[in-house]
Design goal:
- The complex is a heterodimer of chains A (183) and B (222).
- By secondary structure, chain A is mainly alpha-helical.
- Chain A contains 7 helices and 3 strands.
- Chain A starts with 8 loop residues before the first helix and ends in an 11-residue tail after the last helix.
- Chain B contains 7 helices and no strands.
- Chain B is elongated.
- Chain B is mainly α and 222 residues long.
- The chains are: A mainly alpha (183), B mainly alpha (222).
Chain lengths: 183, 222
């Protein structure tokens, strides 16, 4: 897809601006997914969200979890906390048009850890079982790809190669220029 | 304007996360002792069922009625492939059951302590006595449950010990099958040593001859 074929400069700038907002919305959606069902604890009736997993610290159930497996209990309770802190960091960086590859990797790694890191404590650990965690995995993977494309765009700019691809990436990643002020 | 929108969104998100997690945590803390005890006892029931399945699965190895398919396996590695996952699962199931019983006992203690405190709060002596009788009857039921749970725990532990012995037996067999060496390898002296020994006499004669021809450096030509 050659985004340079868009009819006018204004339209290209608008597309760039829209993509920038979409990227920010993706970071916001990760925070929203924190409150959707993530996984079901073995022996518990209903699926728990990320927020409920963090709140397990205040519940007597935490003693049972630690008695079964300390490592898995730390994964189950610690990873959602790490994930939400990293997600807020990513969102703050995106708001300032900056990338946060390390924090995004942490979000992705934490979500995958919750899926596969506590098999003895969760009843359903398969990918796609619960909407919240699946959404976070998909969104964080998309953000990682987004940041890789931004990096590629930067490399193309410095080496002055493939100008058409560079321009298309500027629009596609939302990292190109537009006239509207953000202040 | 956009920057303000972003900063408001970030602040709102942080507030939502803190309030959301705090609210859920508060809900957990403020749950009654009865709710905690109810959840714990449900967990024990669930884990009892899971443990039964797992122990039965691993128990086919130590049962007198050996499964036909497993009984036909002649290779130790293939047998361990069948055994190891079932053994791990059984061990985990026992650990979970044990932890669930401990957790339930702890919840029950909190529940009965709360009940006793409420009972002692009655001003009417008659009501207090009746409540005490109710508490005692309930505690009796709990004691029966605890005895039953402990009996199952002991029975499960016995099975787990038998499973552990079977695991050790299989591990020893695996170790033995890995340690395959040629026992005949050390029965005779290596051929190179024997060949040189055969030539030793020749070397002895040659060295004697050479010693006769080479004079000592201190020999002054006597």
């Amino acid at each position: 897809m050659n985004l340079m074929s868009l009819p006018s400069q204004s339209l290209r700038e608008f597309a760039t601006f829209a993509m920038r907002l979409v990227a920010f919305a993706a970071t916001l959606a990760i925070i929203g997914a924190f409150f959707l069902p993530w996984t079901r604890l073995d022996g518990m009736g209903q699926a728990s969200s990320g927020a409920e997993l963090v709140a397990l610290v205040a519940s007597p159930t935490i003693n049972y979890l630690f008695a079964v497996s300390t490592v898995q209990a730390v994964v189950l309770v610690g990873c959602p906390a790490l994930l939400i802190l990293s997600a807020i960091m990513v969102m703050a960086k995106y708001a300032r048009r900056k990338t946060a590859p390390f924090a995004t990797c942490l979000v992705f790694a934490s979500s995958v850890s919750v899926i596969y890191g506590a098999p003895d404590l969760t009843a359903s650990s398969e990918m796609g079982a619960y909407v919240g965690l699946s959404l976070i995995v998909v969104l964080s993977a998309a953000l990682l790809i987004h940041q890789a494309l931004i990096k590629l765009r930067g490399n193309l700019y410095h080496r002055r190669r493939l100008p058409t691809v560079y321009q298309s990436l500027s629009i596609l990643t939302g990292s190109g220029l537009y006239r509207w002020s953000e202040r | 304007m956009l920057r303000r929108f972003f900063s408001i969104t970030i602040t709102a998100s942080i507030v939502a996360v803190v309030v959301g997690v705090g609210w859920i945590a508060f809900g957990e803390v403020s749950k009654s002792e009865a709710a905690h005890a109810d959840a714990s006892f449900s967990m024990v029931n669930h884990q009892t069922g899971r443990m039964g399945e797992s122990l039965n699965s691993a128990g086919t190895f130590i049962s007198t009625e050996i499964s036909v398919d497993i009984g036909r396996i002649t290779d130790i590695s293939a047998l361990l492939e069948e055994w190891s996952p079932r053994y791990q699962q059984a061990q985990t199931a026992y650990r979970k059951f044990d932890s669930a019983v401990i957790s339930a006992e702890s919840s029950a203690e909190a529940y009965f302590a709360a009940q006793r405190a409420l009972t002692e709060g009655f001003h009417s002596k008659e009501l207090r006595e009746r409540a005490r009788a109710d508490d005692a009857a309930e505690f009796e039921l709990y004691e029966q449950w605890r005895q039953s749970a402990r009996a199952i725990q002991e029975e499960a532990l016995e099975i787990v010990h038998r499973l552990s012995d079977m695991d050790t037996t299989l591990q020893k067999l695996k170790l033995r099958s890995d340690f395959a060496f040629d026992a005949g390898g050390f029965s005779e002296v290596p051929s190179d040593i024997l060949a040189l020994e055969e030539q030793l006499a020749q070397f002895q004669i040659a060295s004697d001859n050479i010693r006769e021809t080479i004079a000592s450096p201190f020999d002054m030509g006597k």
